[in-house]
Each structure stands twice: as C-alpha cells, then as structure tokens.
Write a structure and sequence with these properties.
Butyryl-CoA Dehydrogenase, subunit A, domain 3; 2 domains; three-stranded antiparallel beta sheet; 5 strands
C-alpha cells in the first residue's frame, strides 16, 4: 500500500518557513535575521509589508474611477456645425456602425473587458490569499493580470494621438474629455494594485488550508 501523498495535497515548505527572505530590490535569498540585504543593503521582509491592505485600497480606488471613466465623454470633437462627444462605449458603437469591426473589438476588449476582468482577478487573488487550495492556478491568474494590464491604455493612447495630430483650427479640433483622466487612473491604480500584491501569500494560505484526499 503506497503512503505517497497525492500531488494535489503536497505543500512544500516555503523559504519563509525556513527563515529565508528574498530581497525586494535585488532578489538575493538570505536569512531574514540579517535585517539588511548583504548585497544591496535594502531592508529585508519575509513578505511585502501591508500587501493586502494596499492592494485592496488601490482596487477600490480603481473601481470608483471606473464609473466616471465610462459615464463621461472620453473625447470631444469640435468641427464646423457643432461639437460631438463620445464615451468609450459610444465610440465602440460608432466603430461598429461604420463596419470597423476589428477596431471596435480591440477598443471594447482593451478599454471595457480587460479592466473589468483585471478588477475581478485582483479581488479573487486577495480573497485567495486568506484561504487558497489551488496556489498554482491562482499564481497563473496573477501572472496574466500583470501581463495584460498595460494594454488597457490603448484608449488613452488613441485620444492622446488624435489630440496631437487633429488640430485644424476652425475646421476641426479634438480635445480629451474628463473620462480620459479617469480611465488613465483606472489603468494606473490596477497596475499598482497588481504590483503591490505579494503572490507568495497564496502559497502561505495553501499551507494553512486543510488538505482533502479524494
């Protein structure tokens, strides 16, 4: 009869359990009792200080900014005959009506879908840091969240380029709307939230979680 534990129930001892800390500046692993990194003299911590608190605060701020980012116009076009304002969603609809389907899909994915998914992913990671039974899966979610977050800036880049290029005096000019600043805030705060989250907390929670045998 085999006494080997199932792969899903195996939780190896972490470096923190052995009193080892990875320097946040240079990455050198060394005893946390040294208090200072022997290579770069940075202060040693077993985990990022107040990681969950800072991540939650930044995530809540991003969720609040996401409302004006979608309600207010992201761009204003002044032309002969009047002015036209577009929100992110109305811009997507406009591209779709003009049969610019690839652009509409890219803008919707980068400016609407990715921020929502990123907020949900960060909330899921914060909850999993309290009690986690699938640390590998949660770590993959964390890596994806860090990878795709920067692509949310596509809408802000488009507005910035149009503002710089389309300045035709009395014929036509484009100005950024209040939503552009709010949307940039959403992207920045979600990126900072992902950076402040310490994924090693997932493995700590996995060690503390009760093991189940199938």
């Amino acid at each position: 009869m085999s006494t080997e534990a199932p792969p899903g129930d195996f939780h190896p001892r972490t470096a923190a359990a052995r009193g080892l800390a990875s320097c946040h500046s240079c990455g050198k692993v060394q005893p946390v009792t040294q208090q200072r990194c022997g290579r770069c003299d940075a202060k040693l911590h077993l985990r990022k200080p107040d990681s969950l608190q800072r991540t939650w605060a930044l995530t809540v701020a991003a969720a609040i900014l996401y409302i004006p980012a979608n309600v207010y116009p992201v761009m204003r076009a002044d032309r002969l005959g009047g002015a036209e304002e577009n929100t992110i969603l109305s811009g997507v609809v406009l591209f779709w009506e003009h049969k610019a389907y690839p652009i509409a899909i890219v803008v919707f994915t980068a400016s609407v879908l990715i921020p929502i998914l990123k907020l949900l992913a960060i909330v899921t990671l914060c909850l999993a840091a309290r009690r986690c039974r699938r640390p590998r899966a949660m770590t993959r979610i964390y890596r994806m969240t860090e990878l795709v977050g920067r692509w949310s800036m596509v809408d802000v880049f488009v507005v910035a380029i149009l503002v710089a290029v389309v300045q035709l005096g009395s014929l036509m000019s484009i100005q950024p709307g209040p939503a552009a600043l709010a949307f940039a805030g959403v992207v920045i705060t979600t990126m900072l939230a992902a950076m402040s989250f310490d994924p090693r907390l997932l493995w700590d929670a996995a060690q503390d979680a009760p093991q189940h045998h199938e």
